[in-house]
Predict the 3D structure of the following.
Amino acid sequence: MADEKPTRLRDYGLQSERLLWPTKGPSQFEEDMGADELERALGITTLEKAVRWAQTKSMWPDTFGLACCAIEMMSIVSARYDIARFGMEAFRSSPRQADLLIVSGRVAHKMAAPLRQIYDQMLEPKWVIAMGVCASSGGMFNNYTILQGVDRIVPVDIYVPFCPPRPEALMEGIIRLHEAYLAGVPPAYERVGVAT
Ligand code: SF4
């Protein structure tokens, strides 16, 4: 759920007799600028927003590849795509130091338990991207060996379509994830359950 949008200077914690006076409407200054413009012009924000901003600028992915999609995922650290622009060049080898699990490829039933274990070892807040049709829904592998969607074992924040998704598509998913979190959308584990 998105944060309640502040409309008055007092919503930012500024206190003066006029701002706190219950029957006083917005001042001419507030009316002329609007809350969004005020926030930008005065450089004020909330601690929650500042923390969210910092978290989206250091959302380190876990080093975890499953199938062909992983090759596309690897290329996002290359000079051509340069995920370092978003503070994400550091793929972590330990889930305890990672914030984002990119499930890149089909998940065999045999891999379901290790994948869930890796997810459980990540500290909160944490996010999951299902990359490609196989991770999202099993894709063309509608058979007994493949999990029909990784959202059956972990809560997924963003689904990236295609087979395989190009690195641009994965980056689009990452940017959408950043935007959603900055807008106040909590991680998926707070919003959705898993089927099993
Ligand atoms: S979506 Fe395509 S590229 Fe990705 S793991 Fe499945 S078959 Fe491979």
In short: The chain has eight helices and three strands. The radius of gyration is 21 Å. The mean pLDDT is 86.
